Amino acid sequence: MFAKDNNGVLRIAELFLARVRERPDAVALAGDGTSMTYRALGERATTLAGGLVELGVAPETPVGLAFERSADAIVAMLAISLAGGAYVPLNPAFPTQRLDDLVADSGVRLVLADAAGRARAGRRGRAVGGHRRAGAGAG
Fold it and tell me: What range defines the domain where residue 85 resides?
């Protein structure tokens, strides 16, 4: 379903999907009192990746990633990779002007964000939280 890069090397997304097939019930993420199996992580990331493709994410499309450290941030990173995009980290703790500059300089038109990220980085592009659109901003 997902292609190798131009040099024939598997991307992190393909390596991750191979692990999902090999050990679906093994713990993939643990921390902050929560854990997630490879199967659950794979399902969430693949679902979100499909939504990103529907929104126009194609190979090497820059997608903003505005999350505090969390399992949702990992899901979003994997989803962007599965969709073929390139994630651009946007630290919600950065000053608004710095975030605006990062978004403008990188060509980001879509931002995946948690609540903190939407409040700060979702001002440009389209902010998407989880599996549903959280709001649209100026593009």
Answer: 12-136
